[in-house]
Hints:
Layout: E1 2-8, H1 12-23, E2 29-31, E3 45-46, E4 56-57, H2 58-71, E5 75-77, E6 81-85, E7 91-95, E8 98-107, E9 111-113, E10 129-130, H3 133-136, E11 144-148, H4 152-161, E12 167-171, H5 181-188, E13 193-196, E14 199-205, E15 213-218, E16 224-227, E17 231-234, E18 238-240, E19 270-272, H6 284-304
Parallel strand pairs: 1-2, 1-8, 2-5, 8-19, 10-17, 11-12, 11-17, 12-13
Antiparallel strand pairs: 3-4, 6-7, 7-8, 9-18, 14-15, 15-16
Amino acid sequence: xxxxxVIIGSGCAGLTAAIYAARAxxxxxxxxxxxxxxxxxxxxxxxxxxxxxxxIMGPELIENMRKQAQRFGAEFKAGAVNEVDLTQRPFKxxxxxxxxxxxxxxxxxxxxxxxxxxxxxxxxxxxxxxxxATCDGYFFREKAIAVVGGGDSAMEEANFLTRYASRVYLVxxxxxxxxxKIMIDxxxxxxxxxxxxxxVVEEIISPKGHVEGARLRNLVTKEAREIAVDxxxxxxxxxxNSTVFKxxxxxxxxxxxxxxxxxxxxxxxxxxxxxxxxxxxRQAVTAAGSGxxxxxxxxxxxxxxxx
Length: 307
């Protein structure tokens, strides 16, 4: 079946694109992607999305967006995309055993935060474990927390979190850092930040189902140390879900898709939105905004192409 618009991804960007495309009577097809609902589906309380003065649960916000898109006629299919053919229109998108044809394609596949690979780690997301300081820092007022990582994002998150936390332990496996000197100096000058190097987190202590501490091990002395913390922020990077587009769409050195202008790519009729092309902001509201842009761009493209 030929679709006017196929949207890959069902997070904030993909669902906003679906709402706009559906309201334009384009009957979009949304393929859920790697994680149905994207990163918000793994988040508990969202307090920085406009329109919810008391906050809203991440899964509830995603479900509301999904229902809104369905109300206007969006169709949803489960599964992750494993092949795309963008050499000619209509584009061909394969998810599992099913292949779909599309006059336009919106790639809103998102990005996945890298985790530490510890047992039970995913279950603690939203229960003291986080991958986004600007999203969750507010919940840790006057509490001790740990930030894991050694790049600019780790330094930035550690500094940001001192606005709220009473103490920030910056844990990194080496004594050297990938971060820029100015970011390192800024973190070292902050009296609330304690550097714990060269160390790794061996275990997140959570006897009651939420973070209560972390067991660290020094990689040189092999000594173990436990720290009492209410939160662990993992800042070791994100991986865009863009592997299937390698060699087919422009991407930067880290695999993030690159737009020429707005949501437009080098291939006419293919648009990008959300965290799969945004390594800077990575917020629900910016993802939603870019999903809107992609849908409007797709609608304009279709208006000019009646084939």
